[in-house]
Specification:
Blueprint (H helix, E strand, L loop, with lengths): L1 E2 L2 E4 L3 H12 L4 E5 L6 H5 L5 E2 L8 E2 H12 L5 E4 L3 E6 L5 E5 L4 E4 L1 E4 L5 E4 L29 E5 L3 H12 L4 E6 L8 H12 L4 E4 L1 E7 L6 E6 L4 E5 L2 E4 L3 E4 L10 E2 L2 E3 L13 E3 L4 E2 L7 H19 L10 H4 L6
Parallel strand pairs: 1-9, 2-3, 2-10, 3-6, 10-22, 12-13, 12-18, 13-14, 21-23
Antiparallel strand pairs: 4-5, 7-8, 8-9, 11-19, 15-16, 16-17, 20-21
Helix pairs in contact: 1-3, 1-6, 4-5
Length: about 325
């Protein structure tokens, strides 16, 4: 049995920052994550993707953000159960929570913080009959390592932020040719990104094909060509080393959805007026996994939620102690002995 002060379910950026805020209050944390490494989506899905809205960093790679967070929490000696999914939660006779993973690992704490991001992600795959034949052979639904696309012909499908961001990234950096295909004339991405893509298309840096979609894949053991059908029903063959159908990832809460929590649109309802508590006393939800009026799914918002939540957790763990807020510029950052 692993015993701690706060069990954090999810070792993404918000879960990691929770360790820091808890450490300032001398609370120990143990993190559980189904992924084999800390960092959540930032480490597993887009470690080389730049993030622009982290305070103090005009731009930082997602993987570097995770590395910095791991360095920041090192003095507080967090422990981890990685590569295991939390499946069950119950209270023991002492009123503490027992969280058990699929592998049977048990954890005990008076407080549980769910920071599982958007949950388990399943890519939205286009209905092409032979698409499975080319998965990991030219077809990819997420970009883990941009370096493999250097000097390659890349075709990207999609009209959201992810498709536009990667099209701009590859066109600005090192790809041989970038083609962006979207089935509509309008995009669902940030207006600035759309304008940049249009400008690059005019300069010939992006081959922009609108009102069209990919209908076929061809190649000998690896992707070589894709077939595109446009609005006029014309079929066009395009040489392609890689095709990235970036239509988004469908999130699912997984086993957490069966824990008796109040769920709304695949997210956990919390009280944002006080401490991001759920309908289960002692269980909190922070980051993208929660919902409340005015919710913004941003990492920096998750950092704020973690800070407020930890203050409430301290009161629950130590009801007879007074916690006086001290600025780190005064108190410093002192880890556990």
């Amino acid at each position: 049995m692993i015993k701690t002060d706060i069990i954090i379910i999810g070792a993404g950026p918000v879960g990691l920052f929770t360790v820091f805020e808890a450490g300032l209050l001398k609370l120990r944390c143990h993190l559980i994550d189904s992924l084999p490494i800390p960092g959540g989506q930032c480490a597993e899905i887009y470690p080389k993707k730049p993030i622009y809205d982290i305070p103090g960093y005009p731009s930082i790679l997602a993987g570097d953000l995770v590395d910095n967070l791991m360095t920041q929490i090192k003095p507080f000696k967090p422990s981890f159960t990685l590569g295991e999914t939390a499946t069950h939660i119950e209270r023991n006779d002492e009123g503490k929570f027992i969280v058990t993973t699929k592998q049977g690992t048990k954890h005990e704490a008076p407080v549980v913080a769910i920071a599982g991001g958007l949950g388990v992600f399943i890519p939205r795959k286009p209905p092409i009959f032979n698409i499975k034949e080319f998965e990991n052979k030219g077809v990819a639904y997420i970009v883990k390592d941009p370096e493999i696309y250097r000097n390659k012909n890349i075709v990207i499908s999609g009209g959201g932020d992810s498709a536009l961001d990667w099209a701009l990234f590859f066109a600005n950096n090192f790809s041989k040719k970038v083609t962006l295909i979207h089935r509509s004339q309008s995009f669902r991405a940030h207006l600035d990104s759309v304008q940049q893509a249009m400008n690059m298309a005019e300069k010939g840096k992006i081959n922009l094909i609108l009102d069209a979609e990919v209908i076929g894949l061809d190649g000998n053991n690896k992707l070589e060509k894709i077939t595109v059908k446009n609005k006029s029903q014309e079929e066009i063959a395009i040489d392609s080393d890689y095709w990235l159908p970036l239509f988004g990832l469908t999130p699912k809460l997984g086993p957490i959805a069966n824990w008796g929590l109040e769920i709304e649109k695949n997210a956990i309802v919390v009280n944002n007026a006080t401490d991001y508590s759920t309908n289960i006393d002692g269980v909190y939800a922070i980051g993208d996994v929660n919902t409340y009026p005015g919710k913004l799914k941003l990492i920096l918002c998750g950092f704020h939620e973690a800070t407020i939540m930890v203050q409430a957790a301290f009161k629950k763990i130590h009801p007879n102690k007074n916690n006086v807020l001290k600025y780190t510029t005064v108190s410093g950052v002192n880890g556990f002995d």
